[in-house]
């Protein structure tokens, strides 16, 4: 079973020390993390530019050594142009933003054809209803709990209610289990509980883990708070 479908904390390497990236990833993997979240930004869909397929490829061997999944979050315009490269680099899941493409349904199929799980993300300003047609066809729905673009922002208070609406929408889909519901942005020991109660199972955490003095300990505390299964 893929860690992507279990209750999991997904450390976001956006908040890691890039000069010690491999070491920091090894640290959270050794502490039990089984999903590594990679934030890709293009300077267009969101202002910052971050990382590309080369970073996914650099993480692949480390993640595979312990059976961990690489969760790629594309915050880029025209995501359809980049799918093949991220799949070749070793992504297990590729999530694109609904706001960044006019052919979301076709893109989901294209991601699966590359052998990856397919996720769709929505911004805080996008209603869950926008996913009504797609919810039954995707492996993962990412509910942004901050506006995408930067780590370390404050969690948007109404997010758990939105997660609950997405969970309901997902349950109406064809698959018996429905897509994974992932939350991303401002997740820490204060905010993770409300998202868990509302039906999220995958919790991205950047600064709460890599901004802490002891990233492994910070990861373990969050993992315990959500009842993550042991690796
Ligand atoms: C923000 C990114 C997040 C980011 C979260 O646009 O999608 O994954 O790393 O960072 P924190 O956990 O610090 O809010
Ligand atoms: Zn992200």
Give structural notes.
By secondary structure, the chain is α/β, with parallel strands linked by helices. It has a single domain (8-226), classed as Aldolase class I (TIM Barrel), CATH 3.20.20. The protein has 8 helices and 8 strands, in the order E-H-E-H-E-H-E-H-E-E-H-E-H-E-H-H. It has helices at 21-30, 53-65, 83-89, 104-113, 159-171, 192-198, 207-210, 215-226, and strands at residues 8-11, 35-41, 69-75, 93-97, 117-122, 140-144, 180-184, 202-205. Strands 1-8-7-6-5-4-3-2 form an 8-stranded parallel beta sheet. Strand 7 (180-184), helix 6 (192-198) and strand 8 form a beta-alpha-beta unit. Residues 12, 37, 39, 73, 184, 204 line the site of zinc ion (ZN).
Short description:
With 231 residues, the chain is an alpha/beta fold.
Question: What labels would you give this structure?
Answer:
231 residues, alpha/beta, TIM Barrel, binds D-xylitol-5-phosphate, binds zinc ion
Give the SSE layout.
Elements: E1 8-11, H1 21-30, E2 35-41, H2 53-65, E3 69-75, H3 83-89, E4 93-97, H4 104-113, E5 117-122, E6 140-144, H5 159-171, E7 180-184, H6 192-198, E8 202-205, H7 207-210, H8 215-226
Parallel strand pairs: 1-8, 2-3, 3-4, 4-5, 5-6, 6-7, 7-8
Helix pairs in contact: 1-2, 2-3, 5-6
Bound molecules: D-xylitol-5-phosphate and zinc ion.
> Which ions and ligands are bound to the chains?
D-xylitol-5-phosphate, zinc ion
Q: Biggest sheet, in brief?
A: 8 strands, parallel
Total of domains: 1
CATH classification, class level = Alpha Beta
Going by CATH, the homologous superfamily would be Aldolase class I
Number of strands: 8
Return residue spans where pLDDT drops below 50 for at least 5 consecutive residues: none
Query: Overall 3D geometry?
Result: globular
Which structural class should the secondary elements be placed in? alpha/beta
User: How much of the polypeptide forms β-strand, as a percent range?
Assistant: 15-25%
């Amino acid at each position: 079973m893929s860690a992507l479908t279990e209750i999991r904390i997904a450390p976001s390497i956006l908040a890691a020390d890039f000069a010690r990236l491999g070491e920091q990833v090894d640290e959270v993997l050794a502490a039990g993390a089984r999903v590594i979240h990679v934030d890709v930004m293009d300077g267009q869909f969101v202002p910052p530019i971050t990382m590309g397929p080369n970073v996914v490829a650099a993480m692949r061997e480390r993640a595979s050594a312990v059976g961990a999944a690489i969760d790629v979050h594309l915050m880029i315009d025209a995501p359809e142009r980049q799918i093949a490269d991220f799949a070749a680099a070793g992504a297990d899941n590729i999530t694109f933003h609904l706001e960044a493409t006019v052919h979301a349904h076709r893109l989901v199929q294209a991601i699966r054809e590359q052998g990856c799980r397919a996720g769709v993300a929505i911004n805080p300003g996008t209603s869950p209803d926008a996913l009504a047609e797609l919810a039954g066809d995707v492996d993962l729905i990412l509910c942004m709990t901050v506006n995408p673009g930067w780590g370390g922002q404050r969690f948007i208070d109404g997010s758990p209610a939105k997660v609950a609406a997405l969970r309901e929408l997902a349950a109406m889909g064809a698959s018996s289990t429905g897509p994974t519901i992932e939350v991303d942005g401002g997740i820490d020991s204060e905010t993770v509980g409300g998202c868990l109660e509302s039906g999220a199972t995958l919790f991205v955490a950047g600064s709460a883990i890599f901004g802490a003095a002891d990233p492994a300990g910070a990861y373990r505390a969050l993992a315990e708070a959500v009842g993550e299964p042991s690796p």
